[in-house]
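To illustrate the input format used throughout this study, we show a single complete record. The first block contains the structure-token representation of the backbone; no residue identities are included at this stage. The design step must infer an amino acid for every position from geometry alone.
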């Protein structure tokens, strides 16, 4: 029994050790390295703010802010599309089938992300599927060119890439809401919009925020989407860091990565203070 108890404790410690080894320590090292001095092929120990000054006083910072705007738009669109799906599955689909329905949203992720994003180019292109439908139905008289190689293309790519995550987070938060709450709302005569605004959204706020943070951080950090769908003018933090690595400016890449880490930590702290993100684990208890 003592051996089994020790093994059980070890199993609980493994995830914590994994997070410390592969997230906390690399994050701390990234912050430390961001103050190092650049050399010809690597960097050397020191303390300098040159990488941060270089980032905030150049066009990189403006591109970073624009990528935050685009990511914020993607979060709003994902919420408008994805959260009602989570609510519908929770309210209308039997519990035995709810998780099977959500499994359908996982299937696209069985394909490589690069392939999934690249497959949008023939769909959104000038002679692609979307333009063919618009032309055949007479909605437009000539092909629409702003679907691809524009910020709109980046937003579309972010939405299609990360939409399932707000569905999962929303559904997880909704599982903590007993179904009799919806029945009580109906008995009191509350309309669907009022239920959604005054009951569902406040109760599911932790899940909505968690899904939104995931989409936002990936939107400003995923270099694939702007590189494939955004064209030469679309740049985000991930692409800027990639370009810095290619240019062998590793301290700049570390500084950008550190800014991303600080952004994530700040958002999680704000979300926990406002919505108590630990409520997401309530269905598991």
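Output of the design step:
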């Amino acid at each position: 029994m003592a051996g089994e108890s020790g093994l059980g404790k070890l199993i609980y410690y493994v995830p914590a050790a994994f997070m410390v080894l592969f997230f906390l320590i690399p994050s701390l090292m990234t912050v430390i390295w961001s103050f190092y001095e650049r050399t010809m092929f690597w960097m050397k120990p020191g303390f300098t703010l040159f990488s941060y000054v270089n980032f905030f006083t150049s066009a990189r910072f403006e591109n970073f802010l624009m990528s935050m705007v685009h990511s914020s738009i993607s979060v709003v669109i994902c919420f408008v599309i994805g959260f009602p799906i989570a609510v519908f599955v929770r309210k209308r689909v039997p519990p035995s089938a709810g998780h099977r329905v959500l499994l359908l949203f996982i299937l696209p992720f069985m394909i490589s992300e690069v392939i999934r994003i690249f497959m949008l180019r023939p769909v959104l292109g000038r002679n692609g599927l979307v333009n063919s439908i618009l032309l055949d139905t007479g909605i437009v008289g000539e092909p629409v060119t702003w679907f691809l190689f524009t910020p709109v293309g980046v937003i579309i790519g972010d939405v299609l890439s990360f939409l399932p995550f707000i569905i999962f987070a929303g559904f997880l938060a909704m599982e903590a809401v007993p179904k009799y709450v919806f029945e009580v709302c109906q008995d009191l005569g509350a309309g669907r919009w009022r239920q959604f605004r005054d009951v569902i959204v406040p109760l599911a706020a932790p899940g909505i925020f968690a899904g939104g943070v995931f989409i936002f951080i990936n939107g400003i950090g995923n270099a694939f989407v702007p590189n494939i769908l955004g064209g030469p003018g679309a740049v985000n933090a991930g692409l800027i860091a990639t370009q810095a690595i290619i240019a062998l400016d590793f301290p700049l890449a570390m500084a950008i990565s550190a800014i991303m880490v600080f952004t994530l930590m700040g958002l999680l702290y704000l979300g926990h203070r406002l919505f108590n993100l630990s409520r997401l684990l309530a269905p598991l208890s």
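Structural context for interpreting the output: The chain has 14 helices and two strands. The longest strand covers residues 37-38.
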